[in-house]
Amino acid sequence: MLSTSFIIVILLAVALGMGVAIYNRLTRLRNAIGNGFAQIDVQLKRRYDLIPNLVETARKYLQHERETLEAVTNARNQAQSAAGKVRADPAGAGHVAALGAAESVLGGALGRLMAVVESYPELKADRNMREFAEELTSTENRIGFARQAYNDAVLEYNDAAMQFPASVIAGMFSFREATMLQATQSAAERSAPQVRF
Amino acid sequence: MRFRQHQDQARAATRRLLLLFLLTVVLTVAAVNGVLALLWKLQVGGVLGYPRWFFETNSAVATVFILGGSWIESLQLRRGGAHVAQMVGAGEVLVPGDALERRLRNIVEEMAIASGLKPPRVFLLPRDDSINAFAAGWEQHDSVIAVTRGAIERLTRDELQGVVAHEFSHILHGDARLNMRLIGHVWGLQLLFMLGRDLFDMTDSRGRRSVFVLLGLALMGVGSIGWLAGRLLKAAVSRQREFLADAAAVQFTRLPGGIGGALRKIAGQQSARVHSSRAEAISHMLLSSDIFIRGGALATHPPLAERIRRVFGRSMPPLPSPVLAAPETVPDEAGIGEPLPWHDAQAPVAAFASDAHGVPHRTTVSGAADAPDAASPSSTLGKGMPAEWLDAMLQWPFPPDLAATTLAFLLPSGDAPQMQVWRDLFGRHAPAGLDRLVRQVQALGPSSHLPAFERLLTRCAALPLADRRRMRQQAHQIVRADGRLSLVELWRCLLLDHVLDLAHESVLRETHALSLSACAAAIGSVTGVLAWQHGDAGADAAALARSWRQATDLALELAPQAGMDDTPPTLAALRVAMRQLARLAPMRRPHLLKTWCALVSGDASAAAQPVWDSLRCICLLIDTPLPPQVQARFHAPAAERA
Fold first, then answer.
1. Of the candidates A32, A130, A142, which has its C-beta nearest B109's C-beta?
2. Which of A127, A146, A148 is closest, CB to CB, to B254?
3. CATH number listed for the domain at residues A9-179
4. Chain A within 8 Å of B92 (Cβ-Cβ)?
5. Residues A160-178 pLDDT 10s
6. What is the C-alpha separation between B302 and B293, in angstroms, rounded?
7. In angstroms, rounded to a whole number, what is the distance separating the alpha carbons of residues A5 and A180?
8. What is the CA radius of gyration of chain B?
9. Residue A134 and residue B106: Cβ atoms within 8 Å?
10. How sure is the predictor about B164, in pLDDT bands with cuts at 50, 70 and 90?
11. C-alpha pair distances (Å), B452 with each of A24, B102, B300, B392
């Protein structure tokens, strides 16, 4: 006949074991989120490095499109410094928001540049330009997939941390819910684009 | 979708696989015993019993074969995914490659980010034009992805992304590991069958079968049980995983049109075959197996239509899969599939009278006229002068100037526009070297011209698909230079397409062979061409054609064709006729060739070399051995050295 204290000890041991397992799992998932964010950072850096070469190649042909090229260069510099600030101080006020805004400006400027390239057949056929176009497409895809992977990691972590009984452990050790990346920061951009002829 | 869950499932599937394998071995050994016992009974009669240790020996030998084979193959495969890829003939894609390869590497890295895996090594199957891919490897860090050349050329970026995501899912879910183990098991089961087949196919240097052919047949019969068992095992394990991989591809790319479009294009293509002798071993790992074995218990993949339906949510028709313009070519330049100038091909054969006299593609060093030589074929035999350089060209496996030398055989005599085009194409070589090359090629006797050309083409057949396509493009450029198409040029181009295996763009998939009577029109056309060529397009060429056609109809028991008249045949009609003759039943072809040879050699005036050239080309294009009369008219270049 087992004494009650023995049973209680066994139950406590089992609960402790489960708690440890849950804690480890939550830690692993949270680290995956950090990894995902670093991955986005890597791809953004790749984009920043690619753009000056792109602009130089295009400059030879686009003598009359200086404003487009300048817009791209300025946007790129802005975004790069914003990213630097975030890297230095991730928790600082509004840094991440500023990075998001700078990124969207850069995306818009790049889009306009590629549209201009389409209408200059010589530039489009230039070998370096074609390589850059492919690299740029790949980089935009990589950034997109990195954000997707980040959001997937956040989803998995949130699912794990907010379900019972893991939520108990999460509460005890301050595993907070993580936020997903939004597609765009500003409400103005979120509204449907207007087409004006 | 929880990846960990699926990996656990995969591990459970591995255990099930092992049990299934052992069960299959037991059943196979029992079946082998049964077959051998039956044979014994039939041979020896029912009165005597079985010899001592009959069943034990059979079981022991079969078991040793199966398990031993599995073990040896597993040892080989332990070298990892890269070994599997190289076994099937894939080459690694290293930086820098051409634009398509770079795009492939970029896509693989993108998918690595999306799935959270380290990017695997990327391999390319350069000789395969069909759309296919596979992933192999024991662990995630040692995995590889291999894609065919056809896939990177015929799929859009999104579709290629879907295919790569599908393969990534195999790696992530542990399918790759499962499939590697499966290769090992199935190899053991199929070992007896393959041994029998090798014995059956073994031929000595003169092409005759060895004495073991009956033993080989017997082993094939017994081993086919094992082959069947292997197929069933593969089917049982790998089918479900394909649905899972398709779904994961959609999840990674968030784009059903990617993997869906690729599957639709595969459904629309003629064949998914991978051209390798070891392709059967990895058939379960491919994106899509050969579509001829659709459905049924033996299929390693679920039906394509069902896969497409699951991806899109509804049934979708197949898509055509033309070669898309590579990112590095501006669309105007990509004249890859441009045909020969057929506007000129309506002109009759007789108009190209220069081809009827002698061999216009041969010239002595001084450029003398060819006509006197044509009259006496015996004087031209033995006149070839293969210099050491050309000889070396014929013996090296991959000489650097292979394309230049091969296409030099398309050049006519004298200073024709084709020569200029050829020089422009290969202008990176010194002009003196080009001159020497042309002289040596044209110094070959007419009886060595075609054999040398064929030998070089055979070397070129091992080149990657992109290089072969480029050669075809260059050949068409050269031939088009003077704005006319001659009969000899047509034969050469058809030969090039055939040997370099580039003809399947235009060949429909045929399921049955034609009889002689079904090809009567084609036979009539070709007979006419031969007659007109033999008759030098003279006045009595029409009469000759008529009499030859009658003789052919008589010899082959064909009904006389209504449409044949006295006008000279056109090159376009000849091309159509050759395509139809390629479908003739293989057993009928020697008879047809013998009839033509009899006609040509039976004629009073001795036939000129060009007619024999035509006959030889016909033999090669329809894959028939050369009749002795044709063989006698040609000398391999090396033989003329003495």
1. A142
2. A148
3. 1.20.1440.20
4. no
5. 888 888 888 888 888 888 8
6. 11
7. 46
8. 29
9. yes
10. very high
11. 72, 37, 44, 12
Residues in chain B: 642
Q: Is the pLDDT of residue B256 over 70?
A: yes
Residue type, B586: P
For the question of whether the overall pTM of this predicted structure is more than 0.80, the answer is: no
B539 residue type, one letter: A
Task: Answer yes or no: do B113 and A125 touch at CB < 8 A.
Answer: no
Q: Does A196 touch chain B (CB under 8 A)?
A: no
> Would you state the structure tokens that stand for residue B333, as one six-digit string?
């330049």
- Measured from the Cβ of residue B324, the count of other Cβ atoms closer than 10 Å reads 15
Contact present, B318 and B265 (Cβ < 8 Å)? yes
Whether a cis peptide bond, with omega within 30° of 0, leads into B360 is: no
**Least confident among B6-15, B18-27, B251-260, B568-577:** B6-15
Cross-strand pairs, B145: B122, B135
DSSP class of residue B505 equals G
Residue of B nearest to A43 (CA): B113
Distance from C-alpha of B616 to C-alpha of B488, rounded to nearest angstrom: 12
Among chain B residues, CA nearest to A124 = B330
Diameter over CA atoms, chain B: 85
Size of chain A, expressed as the number of residues it contains: 197
- What's the CA gap between B567 and A140, in Å, rounded? 64
Greater confidence, B231 or B119? Answer: B119
**Of A135, A122, A113, A114, nearest to A60 (Cα)?**
A122
Under 8 Å between Cβ of B451 and B613: no
Cis preceding linkage at B399, omega within 30: no
What pLDDT shows up at residue B297?
64
ipTM given for this complex: 0.78
Determine the distance in angstroms separating the CA of B331 from the nearest CA of chain A, rounded to an integer. Answer: 10
Domain boundaries, chain A: 9-179
From chain B, the residues in CB contact with A134 under 8 A are: 99, 102-103, 106, 327
Told to judge if B640 belongs to the known catalytic residues of this protein, a careful annotator would answer: no
Which residues, 6 or more positions from B409, have their beta carbon under 8 angstroms from its beta carbon?
A: B361, B441, B449, B452, B453, B456, B492
The confidence score (pLDDT) of residue B328 equals: 52
Residue pair B165/B253 in contact (Cβ under 8 Å)? The answer is: yes
Number of other CB atoms surrounding residue B90 within 10 Å: 26
Give the tens place of pLDDT for each residue, B467-521. 788 888 888 888 877 777 778 888 888 888 888 876 654 444 444 677 888 888 8
Q: How far apart are CA A37 and CA A113, in angstroms?
A: 28
Q: Which band of pLDDT confidence, cut at 50, 70 and 90, is reported for residue B69?
A: confident
Is B254 in CB contact (< 8 Å) with chain A?
yes
- Tell me the pLDDT band of B240, cut-offs 50, 70 and 90: confident
- The more confident residue out of A1 and B422 is B422
Q: What is the DSSP string of B558-570?
A: PPPPSS--SSPPB
pLDDT surpasses 70 at B345: no
B538 torsion bin: left (phi>0), alpha (psi -120 to 50), beta (else): beta
Q: Are B501 and B130 in contact (CB under 8 A)?
A: no
